[in-house]
Amino acid sequence: MAVLEDNGVYVFATIGVISIFFLFFDTIYTLLQLIHGILAPYFAPKEVPPFNEKFGPWALITGATDGIGKAYSKELANRGLNIVLVSRSEPKLQVTAKEIESQYKVKVKIITADFSNVPKAIEAVKRELGELPIGILVNNVGKQYTYPTYLGEVPEQELWDIININIGAVTLMTRFLVTRMQSQGRGAIVNISSGAECQPMPLMNVYAATKVYVKHFTAALREEYASYGITVQHLSPYFVNTKMNDFSDRLRETSLLVPDASTYVKYAVYTLGKINDSTGYWAHGIQYFFTMIPPMWIRMKIANHLNQTFRQDYLRQCQENDNYPDNKTQILESR
Predict the structure, then answer these.
(1) Where does this protein have coiled-coil stretches (predicted)?
(2) Could you tell me which residues are beta bridge partners of residue 191?
(3) 123 to each of 111, 128, 157, 226, how far by Cα in Å?
(4) Helix (H), strand (E) at residue 187
């Protein structure tokens, strides 16, 4: 009996040593990845082969005239790719196209498409794109709540727009171009989600749910096309200083944890072809690590608290400007 007990102790001790060994090296590896992520975009050489040779000569970016989409367009143009800009505002498309052409000396094509009507938008893209060989597709277009809101306060049309744009656009744009990439034997698809996918998110309920779709859709797509030479990347940024976060002044101040779009994209583009799932930005990676430690019910409570705070920021701004949104009565009753 004593022999059996001694053997049991040795077995559990061995398991403990092995576990500590792997934990130690996993921690060191994570630390090295963090340091690499911080420094590499500034000191690493250009991609070899460059993106236009590795994936193809053209990149198409949806939601390309503001925020992350515009920054992606510029960063990919800086790497030598010709750019297709897709957005709903033709005047903004023309301004952005001229800016990129003059600064980076690449070809730029614009396509006007409103993804709140996905079938019509897809037909417009197909018609205008013709047989252009798209090497990189950046599914960036998305719609956020105007401000953190209880479901019953959100106008029906706004909900439909969030669902159609956040789910329909990424699905149908991918379906359209993945077959081209398959026939070309190369290409990259970047689906931009959100840190909102990490837990149910009260007051941004539908928006967060659509981002879970993007995450799962991208993972399954990667597996489907793994043998065709197509890179499929999922990005889940946390807060970035863009117009999408206009509901709170706290999120319109650039900081270490809330980068501007250009800073975010400088890091995110560097991860393309290297990391399949990423926040895209090193500081967001740290946020993600600590976010995922608590159980989901705690994360949901924290998300609710944050969104309640941002909601009050927005309502305070409205009160100061005497500029309440259309559902003013409901808002005042729910405060």
Answers:
(1) none
(2) 139, 234
(3) 11, 9, 22, 27
(4) strand 187-192
**Is 207 assigned a catalytic role?**
yes
Q: Which of 207, 225, 238, 267 is catalytic?
A: 207
- What domains does the chain contain, in order, with CATH numbers? 49-317 (3.40.50.720)
pLDDT at res. 50: 87
212, 316 contact by CB (below 8 A): no
- Are 298 and 305 a contacting pair, CB within 8 Å? no
pLDDT per position as a tens digit, 199-209: 999 999 999 99
SS (H, E, C) 47-113: CCCCHHHHCCCEEEEECCCCHHHHHHHHHHHHCCCEEEEEECCHHHHHHHHHHHHHHHCCCEEEEEC
For residue 15, the model assigns a pLDDT of 76
Helices within the chain (DSSP H only): 2-43, 51-54, 67-78, 90-104, 118-129, 156-163, 170-184, 205-224, 261-270, 282-291, 296-321, 328-334
